[in-house]
Amino acid sequence: MISETARPLIVGIGGTVREGSSTERALLAALKTAEAGGARTLFLGGTFLANLPIYNPQPGGPTADQMILARAVAEADGVIIATPGYHGSLSGVMKNALDTLELLREDSRPYLTGRAVGVIVTAEGAQAGGTTLTAVRSIIHALRGWPTPFGAALNINSGSFDGDGALKDPKETRQLNTVAEQVLEFTQRRARS
Questions:
Q1: What is 4-192's CATH topology?
Q2: Sequence ranges of the domains in the chain
């Protein structure tokens, strides 16, 4: 039997300020795939992200929620980021969460170092997907993370899901599965090396 700590930890960060958004649902579906592949998962959704204060490096120290985010990423073997495509880029709450990872600059694995990071972009329209995916991947590189080869750019809305939270379109389901599987595969290869 594999111990709980031997199973990789995949942290999912994303959603919108609207609880149960399509972005949040897509992230939860990807985390479910990671769990089916043997990972432990932690979900930090839109409600959590909306409560993070704007990152400010001034004295006074981080808040408890900022520390929860920083500790989760510090302990993560892999990360999945999900953001809506707002006006051609990521949402403000997601950018703020990524800015908050500045708290990890002095960590033994600074920022996203050594972690595969999968990206999911949701939008009601195809145009925002590509530009947002590129923007998020650029940020991941700046934070020393390894974006997975495949990133999901989904043209979906709240009606794209069934009552169990699964996407109705098999093509979009495959995209989410691929993101999760690539993050998990990277963590497993890294653990063997």
A1: Rossmann fold (3.40.50)
A2: 4-192
